[in-house]
Amino acid sequence: MDIFSKIAAGEIPSYKCAENEQFYAFLDISPLAKGHTLVIPRREVDYIFDMDDDEIAAYQVFTKKVATALKQAFPCKKVAQIVLGLEVPHAHIHLIPMNSEADVNFRNEHLQLTEEEFKDISSRIYEAFKKL
Asked: Taking a C-beta distance cutoff of 8 angstroms, is the pair 90, 111 a contact?
């Protein structure tokens, strides 16, 4: 079981933003912006394009709902959707609130947030998600 599967299963603590039977969303612990969220399928799959058509469609619909909640919790021009990362062999989508393209440069300095800030951010997104 990879680290993201352990997070989705609750074996490793995370700052949950949204979930359903198939997918799980949680805060990135090294965020580019407040609200930077990772969305994963619960099923272990390394490459997003290895998912079957129905699963990837459901993944995108779930991700859209998380992005909508994120934008409500952290007003911005758009929420960037980025598929990036080779470190964890588990498909994941980064959702990042953005007001300019510079906001999603992974070479930018990442935020250092307190546990209280992470809890506040995740609860704001989760509450907005539940209302959708």
From this structure: no
pLDDT digits (tens, 9 = 90+) for 86-125: 888 999 999 999 999 999 999 999 999 999 999 999 999 9
Which DSSP symbol is given to 21? S
Q: Write down the pTM of the prediction.
A: 0.96
Contact 88, 26 (CB under 8 A): no
36 is catalytic: no
Identify the sign of the CA torsion 48, 52, 57, 61. Answer: negative
Instruction: Give which of 69, 77, 80 is closest to 130, Cα–Cα.
Output: 69
76 sits in which H/E element: none
The two three-digit tokens of residue 70, written as one number = 């994120």
Q: Which of 36, 90, 92, 94 is catalytic?
A: 92
pLDDT tens for residues 60-69? 999 999 999 9
